[in-house]
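Example: Purine ribonucleoside efflux pump NepI.
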Amino acid sequence: MDRKLPLRALIALATAAFVTILTEALPAGLLPGMSTDLAVSESAMGQSVTVYALATALAAIPLSAVTAKWRRKHLLLSAIVGFAVANTVTVISTSYALTMTARFVAGVAAGVVWSLLAGYARRMAPEGLQGKAMAVVMAGIPIALSLGVPAGTFLGGLVGWRVTFAVVSGIAAVLIVWIAMLVPDYPGQRAGERVSFRRTLTIPGVAAILFVVVAFVLAHNVLYTYIAPFLAYAGGDVDLVLLLLGAASMAGIWIVGVYIDRRLRLLLIASTVLVAVAAVGLTGSPYVAAVLWGLGWGGVPTLLQTAIGHGGDTAQSMLVTAWNGSMAAGGLVGGIFLDAFGPASFPWVAVALLAPVLVVALAKVDAKVPQTQG
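Written out as structure tokens, the predicted fold is:
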């Protein structure tokens, strides 16, 4: 049996994750130019990120059911084609409505990609190396956030936001060829099998992991979404904090990749504690806290998608919906606390959300995958 990871195929999947995150986050750095060209306010243009996240959350579960019997490679290629088309439409659009429609389509494609990536990585990897395969694929997330978005924002400032989206379309086009040539194909669900989300929830560990997803992502996004007003209150340079967070996230995912196949639970416990300590420490030592935050947060997507992997693609689609719904809710919850109690409340909101995560992580509820636990 070949004990080597199929790195070229896994890096193609990591690039798919990179394109997905980059497409989602780019408008945040390009808002002034986009809003000017499309003749809308920056707040209205900012909803292009919201529309994308909502489309991802809404599409993941129903599309998982509809496409359950599709060949996996055909489905993945269809999603990447969706990114190429949606970003190309964004490049040429002069209409706010058309741009928002393209963003919705891209969000739907993202829901498909996130539902596929974890299962794909697990199926390609030799037994005992599935966690490392997941870490390779999920590395596309921090790379997109720490390098892709700043580079895209810089490029947009030099030559315009449309060129930035055109580059992303080009990457998607290359990725289509890459996947077609190097990524193996797998069958979907067998004929006669039915997708049952209720039955999936009864698989030991799945419901608990979904709870962890909601609480952890809420805690992170309350802090991340409102990091600028928080640092204006607590002191600290936003750009430097985000740079340190991104760099430390890269280190965090590397650490997870090394140990996940033997110490999944221990890594989840450590991640929870690190992010909680970072949340409290942001007030006094924002730069040290940013490093701890990144070390804790960077590997969380890999940990949770690996932990729920025994539930199959249906469980993955439920995780995608929970994740993106919690991202959207993080902005809402943070806004409520900002208005009611001010930015000083954010660390304690995060700690309150992470406390039950620690309880669940310690409870050993994911007994279906003992070989990956610490």
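Confidence is low (pLDDT under 50) at residues 365-374.
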